[in-house]
Amino acid sequence: MDREWRIVNGVLFALYSLFTILCSTQIAEAENFRCKDSAITTAAETARLKSAQFWTDTSLPGDWYTPCQIHVRHAQHSGGGAASFRFEDGEVFDWSMTIEGPRELLLRDVIPHEVDHMVRASLARHPIERWLDEGCATLFESAEVHLSLRTTAAAVDASIVRKEWLESFDYPKNSDEIQDLYAVGFSLVEFLLSENDAKILLEFQREQTSIEQRLSQHYGWTISQFRTKWDLWRRNFSESQSVLRCECSGRTKPLLVIWTANWCGPCRLLWEEWNSDEHLREALQDGFHIHILDYDQHRALAMQHGIQHLPTFQTRQVTVVGFEGTDSLLKQLVPTPLEIDSLTESTIAKEKSSPQTSVDERKHEREKRPPLSPLHFLPQLLQKFRQQRHQKERQASSKI
């Protein structure tokens, strides 16, 4: 019996060692991404949520049917990546991503850029024009990249913005033209966001009519007017214009722009309340990234945004004109706990009334569950072996 026990113990120990090795090389898997590097999957999941929040003010409605495999190639050049997927019958699938470059740049710029391509593909459900697709994805890169692209775009001839270029889904063949595509595409997207919010630009991408029809519908321009207005805007670019768009990197709170002026009586009342009312300061500073613009210093920009009365408070969701006291302002800008509770209750009620999960959804849920490690079953094997050993020992004792 002792010899048999030693043999079994040796076998179990070998199995345990093998299982440990297998588990130590297991691929890190998040809800929507797979990679050997867990920091890569975490960065991708974070970028997915950030992109969806920017375009729709909410997360995507569900997980992708199968996770996207991320292939990493470490290199010392400036970094780059490619996300691939297929469109068919209004669905998007076969997710894959290859990224290459120094790890720091992959986490900071490449992953957010490539993931945004995937998020908007999920939202639009069809290919997007190349300048528009790359320009939007570049929003999620760092301020350093943005500055470089703005500098490049400022030197490009405005005549590049023509019908054929705007409607192309392909990359140019020349490397200099590709560089111009990225720079001008990013600049045009920033310009469109200075004119209207991200939801309008998302609708612009979702529709499959011609560029000229979409420009007319959402912005009231012809292609020629679009080019002229953008050219004037980029020549008068300033940091104050930049804050009215999305500086996505590094911002965790929504933007609140406050328009004010020294000669404005209600503005003076606002700042008196700001200095004396700690509740007002904390509520706004905790809830928003605040940027203050002086009306007299930015008259042209104020006209573009329809600012006619002061003070004016602008977020992506709401515009509040005038200041009638702390309570009135906060009620319009910041949801109260009662409103949040009401929203939560309605969400719960909606979930309770939703139909039962379909067979396909249950299959999806099973596929999303991580496979059980072989070590999960090891305690059961040991317990079963001990029971069998004790049973044989009792049988042997009874015979004696």
SSE topology:
Elements: H1 2-24, E1 28-29, E2 33-35, H2 38-56, E3 68-73, E4 80-88, E5 91-100, H3 103-124, H4 130-138, H5 143-154, H6 163-166, H7 175-195, H8 198-206, H9 211-219, H10 223-235, H11 239-242, E6 255-260, H12 265-276, H13 278-287, E7 289-294, H14 299-304, E8 312-314, E9 319-321, H15 326-333, H16 337-353, H17 359-368, H18 378-399
Helix pairs in contact: 2-3, 3-4, 4-7, 5-7
Instruction: State the end-to-end CA separation.
Output: 15 Å
Name the quaternary structure.
Answer: single chain
Sequence of strands across the biggest β-sheet: 1-2-3-5-4
Which structural category do the helix and sheet elements fall into? alpha/beta
Helix and strand sequence? HEEHEEEHHHHHHHHHEHHEHEEHHHH
Give the total of domains.
3
Instruction: Report on the biggest sheet.
Output: 5 strands, mixed
- Roughly what is the average pLDDT, rounded to an integer? 77
How many DSSP H or I helices?
18
Which range best describes the helical content: under 10%, 10-25%, 25-40%, 40-55%, 55-70% or over 70%?
55-70%
Low-confidence stretches: 16-27, 246-250, 336-382
Number of strands: 9
The shape is globular
What Rg is obtained from the alpha carbons, in whole angstroms? 29 Å
- How big a fraction of the residues is strand? 5-15%
